[in-house]
């Protein structure tokens, strides 16, 4: 366990297991260089594990505190993992943030491309209409000149 992890563990002698002080842990990490990324990663890990284990409906049929024995140790495991892998989680959070940013830029760019496509389609339609009007105008002008020449001859 790294230096931050040692200060966050409190032994509960009566039960003989690690009793994590979550509130203190969140405060300690929030003030560190890692910010909120580590506590959020911890909560995401818990949520994913919980949903994976109990998606079948077991949660709806259990009593209050009925999952403490079964899922309680998993909370400790996830906490230990997050404490032991601070740098890895921080890098992962940065990569996820970068991916989210890139995804946003890509969505914005694709919207711009679609807007441009619509504008180009409108310009092409307008160009075709003006071309047709010009062709008719020139045809009438040509016919007028031919009629005048035919009238003179």
From TrEMBL:
Its subcellular locations are: Endomembrane system
Task: Give the keywords, sorted.
Answer: Coiled coil, Membrane
User: In this protein, which residues make up the domain named Longin?
Assistant: 33-75
List the GO terms this entry assigns under cellular component, sorted alphabetically. cytoplasm; endomembrane system
Keyword Membrane assigned: yes
Stored Pfam families? Synaptobrevin
Tell me how this protein sits in the membrane: Single-pass type IV membrane protein
Q: Which InterPro entries match?
A: Longin-like_dom_sf, Longin_dom, Synaptobrevin-like_transport, V_SNARE_CC
Which residue intervals define the domain V-SNARE coiled-coil homology in the entry?
Answer: 91-141
Q: Could you tell me which PANTHER family the record lists for this protein? A: SNARE PROTEINS, VESICLE-ASSOCIATED MEMBRANE PROTEIN 721
Hey, which family's this protein in?
Belongs to the synaptobrevin family.
Name listed for the protein in its UniProt record: Putative Longin-like domain-containing protein
């Amino acid at each position: 366990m790294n230096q931050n992890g040692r200060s966050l563990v409190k032994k509960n002698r009566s039960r003989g297991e690690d009793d994590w002080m979550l509130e203190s842990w969140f405060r300690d990490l929030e003030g560190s260089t890692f910010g909120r990324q580590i506590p959020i990663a911890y909560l995401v890990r818990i949520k994913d594990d919980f949903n994976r284990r109990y998606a079948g409906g077991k949660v709806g049929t259990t009593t209050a505190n009925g999952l403490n024995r079964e899922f309680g140790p998993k909370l400790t495991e996830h906490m230990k993992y997050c404490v032991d892998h601070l740098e890895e989680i921080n890098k992962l959070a940065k990569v996820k943030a970068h991916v989210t940013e890139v995804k946003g830029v890509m969505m914005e760019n694709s919207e711009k491309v679609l807007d441009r496509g619509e504008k180009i389609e409108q310009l092409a339609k307008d160009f075709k209409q003006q071309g047709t009007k010009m062709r008719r105008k020139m045809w009438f002008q040509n016919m007028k000149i031919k009629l005048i020449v035919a009238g003179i001859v």
